[in-house]
Design goal:
The protein is mainly α. The chain has two domains: about 5-70; about 130-395, Orthogonal Bundle (Ribonucleotide Reductase, subunit A). Helices cover about 60% and strands about 0% of the residues. It is built from 18 helices and no strands. The protein has helices at about 5-15, 20-25, 30-40, 45-55, 60, 90, 140-145, 150-155, 165-195, 205-230, 245, 250-270, 275, 280-310, 315-335, 340-350, 355-380, 390-395. Helix 10 (about 205-230) packs antiparallel against helix 14 and helix 12 (about 250-270) crosses helix 17 (about 355-380). The N and C termini lie far apart (about 85 Å).
Length: about 400
């Protein structure tokens, strides 16, 4: 097919000889294919070899268009490794690091690319607004999660880290492990369910949340192994009223609020109380590792709420509503789940015979949990004290209050 004069000019600018241009002009290749070859900056020798293939099999090679080169994406990008290698922050440069406030594509178009005219099949996404899921610096948080990953099978000392415990203490350890492994399973399911609805353009958030799913998974693994490794066994399932806030959330930001703010704040404070609840070196290490994960999840929750309140028109009012629902479900769980609070009383008293001392330590734990929760919200500009769920306040006075 005849080449346009502009195409011939492109070829000459690349140093293609006139003989090669004439061969191209007389071949079955379309002008658009020749243009794409020049845009690829193919030198004369490579162009000649390609043309040899075309002339040997013209019917088949006529279908080659090299159309992929016709892209609107930014070219010439050279990402440079950072202190931890070529991480996600290092490739978030130029237009490739600019997630828009609203994602315009319904399909699996990655950030920085654009769909072709024949790529129109819509996906299952429902979240297209950046304010609904974004958190500043989430790419760095993803890299941190990858660097700090751990495996319960090899990073915990199952051979030397355990010791024989009194029956009541061992059963209390296993009961607590049962409850929080159950929480981890639900955490996995809830986040995984919502991941499918998040637009592909916000892949940094999806990558980070993938690590939270993984973290929840090895929390389940570690706690179940602990329950089965020292003569105890799994205990009773948790009450489950906590999960109503997770399953009943209608917005992703509500999930973040009830899971990564309300619940995680209390979970983290419990894990940080390892000196009172850990009875073997293995448990001390296990709670320390799980606390590191929980801090990261809590940090995403904080950063997302800040972004949401700054960029969503009803952000502050919605968050207040979400917090109220999350606190109600957590309060009902902590007040009515006798298996958790009684296991904590035994652990903190170092045996059922010291129940009075255990109750007093549990009261102090509940106080610290509520204090940390209030301080967390204060740090992002939310004064929650006047609106706190009364049940959460009551158990700081009497941890056995129902």
């Amino acid at each position: 097919m005849a080449l346009k004069s502009s195409t011939k000019m492109r070829a000459r600018n690349l140093g293609w000889p006139e003989e090669l241009i004439d061969r191209m002009d007389a071949s079955v290749l379309k002008d658009a294919t020749a243009v794409n070859m020049t845009l690829l900056k193919i030198d004369a020798d490579r162009a000649a070899k390609f043309l040899d293939m075309v002339e040997r099999d013209p019917d088949r090679m006529a279908n080659i268009s090299l159309r992929f080169i016709q892209t609107k994406s930014e070219l010439g990008i050279r990402a440079k490794p950072g202190p931890y290698g070529l991480g996600t922050p290092e490739i978030n440069i130029g237009s490739y690091g600019q997630a828009p406030d609203f994602w315009p594509y319904e399909n699996d178009t990655p950030l920085g690319s654009h769909p072709g005219s024949d790529n129109v099949a819509p996906g299952s996404y429902t979240i297209y607004d950046k304010s609904e899921l974004w958190a500043e610096g989430v790419d760095h948080m993803y890299e941190e999660a990858i660097r700090e990953r751990w495996a319960p099978a090899t990073d915990l000392d199952w051979t030397e880290g355990l010791k024989t415990l009194p029956e009541d203490v061992e059963r209390a350890v296993c009961q607590l492990a049962t409850i929080y492994s159950s929480h981890g399973l639900v955490e996995q399911k809830i986040i995984s369910k919502w991941l499918e609805q998040m637009s592909y353009g916000y892949h940094d958030v999806k990558l980070f949340l993938g690590t939270q799913v993984y973290d929840a998974g090895h929390k389940v693994e570690a706690l179940r192994k602990r329950a089965l490794a020292n003569g105890g066994g799994l205990g009773q399932a948790p009450l489950g009223t906590l999960y109503r806030g997770f399953y009943g959330a209608l917005k992703w930001t509500e999930v973040v609020t009830v899971l990564d703010i309300v619940y995680k704040s209390y979970e983290l404070t419990l894990f940080e109380a390892a000196k009172d609840i850990a009875k073997t070196p293995l448990e001390e290490q296990m709670y320390d590792l799980m606390a590191k994960d929980s801090r990261r999840h809590l940090e995403y929750g904080k950063r997302h709420l800040v972004w949401y309140m700054q960029h969503h028109k009803n952000g502050h009012n919605n968050v207040a509503h979400f917090l109220g629902r999350g606190e109600t479900n957590l309060s009902n769980e902590l007040r009515h789940s006798h298996v958790e609070r009684e296991a904590l009383v035994v652990l903190m008293g170092n045996g059922a015979k010291n129940a009075a001392a255990g109750i007093e330590k549990l009261r102090k734990l509940r106080q610290q949990q509520l204090r940390n929760y209030i301080d967390l919200l204060d740090s992002i500009g939310i004064d929650r004290t006047p609106f706190l769920n009364p049940g959460l306040v009551k158990i700081t006075e009497d941890p056995l209050y129902v």
